[in-house]
Amino acid sequence: MPSSALTPSSRPQEIEEILTTLSRYNPETTTVLQEYVATQCATGSYDLMANLALLKLYQFNPELMRDETVLNVLAKSLTVFPQPDFTLALHLLPPSLLHQYSTASAPSTIPLPPKADTDDQLSNSVHRLTYLNSLLELEAFPAFWRILSSDVDEEYADLVADVTGFEDAIRKGVTKGVILSMRSFKIETALSWWNFTNTEAVDQWVEKEMPGWVIEGDCIVRKDEGDAAAAATGTMQPAPGKIKFEQFSRVIRRVYENELLHH
User: Which of the residue ranges 33-37, 65-69, 151-155, 160-164 would you say has the lowest mean pLDDT?
Assistant: First the structure.
């Protein structure tokens, strides 16, 4: 992962000075960094290093921690899936917020998780966001969308409501995996993976986000040699010489984590 991803062009000079000086350890900068999280949510920008710096300040100054900001940092980190930002942020939270979490399994039908057994609202909310992250990691995309829009527990949607463009950001993460690991897949699959209700939306998404891909019949195919045969089978096939979808996420995470270690 290039270093430019860790130093976004949208970062204000004031934030840059905080992150590159001893000010990053000054509790007085907490308010500025909190406001910056709100700006990221409103504008669609994203700054991992600034958000981690804020969570680090919370570690040493727990009395300054704002629940809403913590949850917004976690929600924003979901938008850069399949990068491991959510896990990086989660590990900076107090252990008391994490004790309910356990890795989800991947049955064919994933039910709503049980409510966390605690009266702590922040802990319950972290639990819900962690469950959403686990569904993305499992590539259980239909279940992710189903739970996000569930009438049974509306807090899932509430937790990401402050993040402008949240759904499209998740779709882009799914699309990235498709582009790097497949050469054809069914429109029916696209509808469930991208949470679209009609094929017109799929058409527009492919045209905008997948250059070099076209819709042929009931499939979306990469326009490379041999793709006609792949489309005819109606199956999702790994691109020749490329990794499978489930391997793609792991590769991205390793590269990204190595970059952070040397930043």
Answer: 151-155
pLDDT tens digit sequence for 61-111: 999 999 999 999 999 999 999 999 999 999 999 988 875 544 444 444 555
213-216/219-222 β-pairing: antiparallel
Angle between helices 141-148 and 121-137 (to 10 degrees): 150
Computed on alpha carbons and rounded to an integer, the radius of gyration of the chain in Å comes to: 20
- Round to whole Å and give the CA distance between 96 and 61: 16
- In a shared domain, residues 100 and 189: no
Neighbours of 43 (CB within 10 A): 11
Give every CB contact of residue 263 below 8 A, 6+ residues apart in sequence. 3, 6, 49
213 backbone dihedrals φ, ψ, rounded to 5°: -115, 150
Q: pLDDT by residue (tens digit) across 115-130?
A: 655 678 899 999 999 9
**222 SS3 class:** strand
70 lies in the same domain as 197: no
Mention every residue, 6+ apart, whose C-beta is less than 8 A from residue 4: none
Is residue 73 in a domain? Answer: yes
CA angle, corner 235, sides to 234 and 238, nearest 5? 140
Beta strands in the chain (DSSP E): 182-186, 213-216, 219-222, 237-238
Question: Is residue 247 assigned to a domain?
Answer: no
Number of domains in the chain: 2
CA distance 230 to 238: 10
Tell me: do 113 and 36 sit in the same domain.
Answer: yes
What kind and span of H or E run contains 145? helix 141-148
* Residue 147 domain boundaries: 3-164
